[in-house]
Amino acid sequence: MKTKIPAELTGNVPQTKWGKILLATPVVMTVIATLLAGLASSEMTRAQYDRALGAQLQSKAGDQWGYFQAKKLRGAMQRNSLELLTATTDIHPIDNPVLEKVPAPAALSVDSKVEAALQAIEKEKPETGIADLLKSVDDKSLAAALQTAKDNALAFDTALAPANQALDQLGKSLPTGDKAAARDLTAARMRYNAERYDTEARLNQSIANLYELQVRKINVSAERHHKRSGKFFFGMLAAQAAVIVSTFAIAAQKRSFLWILAAVAGLAAVIFAIYVYLRV
């Protein structure tokens, strides 16, 4: 909206350099205040978006930690059951190379800066130090590391297919009533599943740690936008105060009741805003 100074007011303002500046000041300051208000609102919106995105990523990290804990527990249960079975009866190993050892997953290769941030979290370094490390971490590198971790988990599931098929075939081929063979197969299945669950838990842990890095990085961004919003807001208040002061100056030159009333209203608004900020 265009601001226009009444002609009867401008007629009494000296057309000197200072007079022209005085006339232009309310308009310029109003434009600046509007711009700063828009920037403050924009930064606050971006901060809220980052907070919402961080909450979504934290939920995904929580899912991965849940998988990690569940698989660690399952692995421990399989191992404990195997120990009990071994202690109470004779177990003979099954001669099948596929079941001898769980295939090792591919190593997770990440950027050096991402690795440094992961090490900082693992060693429980102060949040400020972790935040400083995350500032140098590129979003694309972090996203690529997360995708690599997910791909490794999928590749590991694919690598387990031959062993799973072998266990199924052994179960179908067991002679009816052969309890000793059934115990041997049960022990082999427990041993294999214990190692599988432990490996899967480590894969889920890697994914969860990378999600945690994303959450921390997005929270750093949200905090930055929040601070910028506050500074833009105070800049807007300063610009509004300049509008009021310049309006008072013009009103004093003209001694116009309407201009004085407008200036008083603006000053009252600023005082009320300060009161709300400090007391409410």
Notes on the structure:
- This protein has helices spanning 7-10, 17-88, 97-100, 112-122, 127-135, 139-159, 161-172, 179-254, 257-279.
- Helices cover 83% and strands 0% of the residues.
- The longest helix has 76 residues, at 179-254.
- It starts with 6 loop residues before the first helix and ends with a helix.
- The chain has one domain.
- Helix 4 (112-122) runs antiparallel to helix 5 (127-135).
Fill in the keyword field for this structure.
280 residues; mainly alpha; 9 helices; rod-shaped
Write the layout of secondary structure elements.
Layout: H1 7-10, H2 17-88, H3 97-100, H4 112-122, H5 127-135, H6 139-159, H7 161-172, H8 179-254, H9 257-279
Helix pairs in contact: 2-8, 4-5, 6-8, 8-9
Structural class: mainly alpha
Q: From the alpha-carbon coordinates, what is the Rg to the nearest angstrom?
A: 34 Å
Strand tally = 0
**What sort of overall outline do the alpha carbons produce when their principal axes are compared?**
rod-shaped
- Ranges where pLDDT stays below 50 over 5 or more residues in a row are none
User: What value does the average pLDDT take?
Assistant: 84
Give the end-to-end Cα distance, rounded to a whole number of Å: 32 Å
Main β sheet profile: none
User: What share of residues are in beta strands?
Assistant: under 5%
Helix proportion range: over 70%
Number of domains: 1
Number of helices: 9
